[in-house]
Amino acid sequence: MKLIAVKNHERCLAIVLETGFCERGAIPPFGSVYHVHTLVDESLAEDEEIVFQAETHDESIRMTYHDYEIFEHPLRGDFTDHVKAM
Question: Is it the case that residue 53 has pLDDT exceeding 50?
Answer without folding.
Answer: yes
